[in-house]
Specification:
Layout lengths: L1 H34 L7 H16 L5 E2 L8 E2 H4 L4 H9 L8 H14 L1 H13 L2 H13 L1 H4 L9 H21 L3 H21 L3 H17 L8 H20 L1 H5 L6 H15 L6 H18 L5 H18 L13 H6 L9 H7 L3 H14 L2 H4 L2 H18 L4 H19 L4 H4 L1 H17 L12 H14 L5 E3 L4 H8 L12 H15 L3 H10 L4 E5 L12 H4 L10 H7 L7 E6 L3 E6 L2 H19 L3 H14 L4 H15 L11
Parallel strand pairs: 3-4
Antiparallel strand pairs: 1-2, 4-6, 5-6
Length: 669
């Protein structure tokens, strides 16, 4: 009977895992059907794909990527969260050789993310002791749209590699509390610590969870639960904290971004200080004050205004702007800073009732009902850990209101809360147990919502066909020349056209943001010549211009909004490139499709050479050397079709030839 139960549980976990994979592949295939082709990766996903391809083909990622943020390049390990690329590349080699790398990675991405589904089940099982609760949580996590929408494989995302590690951390943390032996408990704590560190180095937004985790530990310390009875709880915090310190010291990305001086780690230093040094025999009031003082001491002694503030401070600026603007993006860009304007886009946009109800049609109200049910059953008295779980869920939900991307954490803690509620039902009166039917119906409703018109859940307003036409043409005709393109298309040009690009589609670095700002201001506020001089100074040879910059639909998502130029001046370079590309003086259009135009940039060196050829043509004409004058003028116009001296000389030579004049040695003009 025991073997039968184990086999049944393994089969159940496999079934939920398979359901998660199947739902995500169904949504992706619906996208392919609508798009009419396998879509290319875009934005940071395209860079992720390129990194995996570098490992798959060459065995490693170059230390300095000279083709990204051209000409100086970037230090790859300090600019991106690397590591998962090596795992994905190794797994990709297990697929048939005839299968394209992109197709392999889409399967790997989905399967890896779905590893979090059994970890979800184990987390709630070890947390509550109920397999019913664990499988319920796993079912919601497998089928709910909020969990599915960003994990279909349409794009490669670092969060999809990190979330299974985060769930493994939660699962082993729960196991350490229930472990029967010291060896098992210590092993579970170590595995929890390693999993948390791996989640952090895979996706830097895990820092939000780390901050919540630190706050929960600080509250527990203030509650006095750190005595002998809480010794294992202290070990369960100290070892993961040590793993975070090692990750912040060893990992180049975290080190470059100042993670060791982050608010979460500063609070961690305070917890370690308070736990080790606060007086044990002092009166409760005095002990609490001493604990608070020790908790805040590192934050007061050390400012986080260094590398961490430079790397992530713009998110605080965006949050401040949202609070001032009541979480609604203003129509007037002058009310926001540049960082707030350019970051207030999908992913970091604010949640609306329509968006929240679309992502969590049943799961969110059912979770709120579950929390109320747990209060009704007085479960918080017997299980203090429930308060921490509700805190994690509530904080993630609050973050989601301001930044939609946090829905992935809301999905994790909402699914966990539903599982805990079901586990609690099994211990109550009979009428409580009938509420389990409600949870099963909610799971079915979430699945139906996900699979109802699944083509709705892809990326909107992406010109996939035109993007492939562009990158295909550029790979054949432009590569390996450096290209200036906006951050929405530059990553695809780098990944698929194999052209160095000047703009990086990531904004954690002040230097990256400043270059994007300079590009936008030259394009919409500067003259055509100013844009050329700036691009030429960075070594660009081609400009890719995205058409539609003056469309009246959603101007708040256009570059002219980002640089506070909703109505650019008449001399703006963007007006010429959008409305009169044939009259551009320093940008010669060489290709276009419905969305993109490619311009060959007339460099200052070429302009100077053309001017010199024009002068030589004029000198030759004065000497009566018509052939040389024509040759020099033609050479000048090949470099610069707008060179006025060469144009005049060529017209003059043509007029003289029609009149019968010949070159030196015959009649002089």
């Amino acid at each position: 009977m025991k073997r039968f139960r184990i086999a049944l549980l393994c089969l159940s976990l496999a079934a939920v895992f398979a359901a998660g994979v199947g739902v995500r592949r169904a949504v992706y295939q619906a996208q392919v059907k609508v798009i009419g082709q396998e879509p290319p990766f875009t934005l940071e996903s395209a860079l992720y794909y390129r990194r995996v391809a570098q490992v798959f083909e060459g065995g490693r990622i170059p230390e300095r990527d000279a083709d990204l943020q051209y000409p100086e390049g970037v230090v790859a390990a300090e600019t991106d969260t690397l590591g998962s690329e090596y795992v994905y590349a190794a797994l990709a080699r297990l697929f048939p050789g005839s299968m394209p790398l992109a197709a392999r990675l889409r399967w790997i991405e989905v399967a890896w993310f779905c590893l979090g589904i059994p970890w979800m089940a184990l987390w709630i099982r070890w947390r509550s002791g109920s397999w019913a609760g664990g499988l319920t949580a796993a079912g919601f996590y497998a089928l709910a749209l909020s969990s599915v929408i960003r994990s279909t494989g349409q794009e490669l995302l670092h969060e999809n590699f990190a979330l299974p590690w985060l769930l493994a951390h939660l699962a082993f943390e729960a196991l350490s509390v229930r472990a029967a032996t010291r060896f098992t408990r210590l092993g579970a704590i170590l595995l929890s610590a390693v999993s948390l560190a791996l989640a952090l180095v895979s996706w830097d937004l895990v820092q939000f969870y780390v901050l919540l985790w630190m706050l929960a530990a600080a509250f527990r310390l203030l509650g006095g639960r750190n005595g002998p009875a809480g010794r294992w709880a202290w070990v369960g915090w100290a070892l993961p904290f040590g793993a975070l310190l090692l990750a912040g010291t060893w990992n180049p990305y975290l080190r470059a971004h100042g993670f060791l001086g982050s608010p979460a780690l500063l609070l961690g230093y305070g917890i370690a200080l308070a736990g080790a040094a606060r007086p044990r025999s002092a009166p409760p009031g005095r002990a609490a004050l001493a604990t608070v003082a020790l908790l805040l001491a590192p934050a007061l002694a050390f400012s986080w205004a260094g590398a961490y503030r430079q790397s992530y401070g713009h998110f605080l600026d965006l949050l401040a702007a949202k609070l001032i603007c009541l979480n609604r993006k203003p129509a007037d860009p002058a009310l926001l800073s540049f960082d707030a304007r350019i970051l207030w886009v999908p992913g970091l946009n604010s949640a609306t009732w329509a968006l929240a109800s679309g992502l969590f049609p049943v799961m969110l109200p059912l979770t709120l009902f579950s929390v109320a049910l747990l209060f009704l059953k007085k479960a918080f008295r017997s299980d203090p850990g429930l308060a921490r779980h509700v805190f994690f869920f509530s904080a993630s939900l609050a973050a989601f209101v301001f930044f939609v991307r946090f829905h992935v954490l809301v999905a994790v803690f909402a699914a966990g809360a539903l599982g805990l509620a079901v586990a609690s039902l099994g211990e109550g009166r009979r009428w409580y147990r009938w509420l389990g039917v409600l949870f099963l119906a909610g799971m079915g409703a979430e699945a139906a919502h996900t699979l109802d018109l699944p083509e709705r859940w892809g990326r909107g307003r992406v010109y996939y066909k035109e993007m492939e036409e562009l990158t295909g043409w550029m790979k054949a005709r432009v590569s390996p020349e450096p290209v200036l393109a906006n951050f929405g298309i530059s990553a695809s040009i780098l990944a698929y056209a194999e052209c160095p690009v000047l703009l990086h589609p990531k904004f954690e670095s002040m230097e990256l943001r400043q270059r994007v700002r300079a590009y936008g201001e030259k394009l919409f506020l500067g003259t055509e010549r100013e844009l050329r001089d700036w691009a030429d100074g960075l070594g660009a040879r081609y400009l890719v211009f995205s058409r539609g910059e003056f469309a009246s639909v959603e101007p708040q998502r256009q570059m002219r909004y980002f640089v506070n130029a909703l109505n650019p001046p008449p001399h703006a370079a963007a007006r010429r490139l959008e409305q009169e590309p044939g009259r551009a003086r320093w940008f010669r259009m060489v290709w276009e499709n419905r969305k993109y135009r490619v311009f060959r940039i007339l460099t200052r060196a070429e302009e100077g050479a053309a001017r010199r050829y024009g002068t030589e043509a004029e000198d030759a004409l004065q000497k009566g050397e018509l052939d040389r004058a024509e040759e020099r003028a033609t050479s000048a116009l090949l470099l610069d079709p707008g060179e006025e001296t060469a144009q005049r000389i060529l017209q003059h030579v043509g007029s003289l030839r029609r009149q019968g004049f010949r070159s030196e040695g015959n009649e002089n003009p």
